[in-house]
Design goal:
Blueprint: E1 18-22, E2 31-37, E3 42-47, E4 56-62, E5 66-72, H1 82-92, H2 94-100, H3 102-114, H4 118-147
Antiparallel strand pairs: 1-2, 1-5, 2-3, 3-4
Length: 148
């Protein structure tokens, strides 16, 4: 028989300890961790972030309102209280990992651009034009040198 090399899929599973991003409701944009699975559509979450503005109280959340992230808190006991969850959250450095993730950086850039004033948007437009002009100028030099 032929040797078959099986590779596990890189799916993000709904599991205890999985960090989720809340997409809608009063805690939109905040992180929480799955503490217990209620049923196939709902989970119990707790978000003990280090920042006071980002804390999510323990509540049942529909999976339709959550996005699973790649981050998992290992060895989180089933239905752990807020205290142990907070200790493991800080030990796993979830806030730092999230801040460094591409999704968080992209969201922050979009939020910053959304809050620009008209004059700031105009300055960004002018800077982009200047950068584009410099690139075109250097490209023209390279093209002219290659044609000789």
């Amino acid at each position: 028989m032929a040797d078959i090399d099986l590779k596990l899929a890189q799916w993000k599973l709904v599991e205890v300890g999985r960090v989720v991003l809340i997409r809608s409701g009063p805690y939109t944009g905040k992180l929480a961790v799955i503490v217990q699975i209620v049923d196939h559509k709902r989970v119990l979450v707790d978000g003990p972030s280090g920042d006071e503005k980002k804390i999510v109280p323990r509540h049942v959340l529909s999976l339709a309102h959550a996005t699973l992230t790649h981050f998992v808190i290992p060895k989180l006991p089933l239905a752990a209280g807020t205290g142990p969850v907070k200790k493991l959250w800080e030990k796993s450095e979830i806030d730092n990992k999230w801040a460094k993730s591409n999704f968080a950086q992209k969201t922050e850039r979009a939020e910053r651009r959304k809050n620009l004033t008209d004059f700031e948007r105009f300055k960004v437009l002018r800077l982009k034009k200047q950068a584009r002009y410099e690139v075109q100028k250097s490209y023209a030099k390279v093209k002219a040198a290659a044609a000789k």
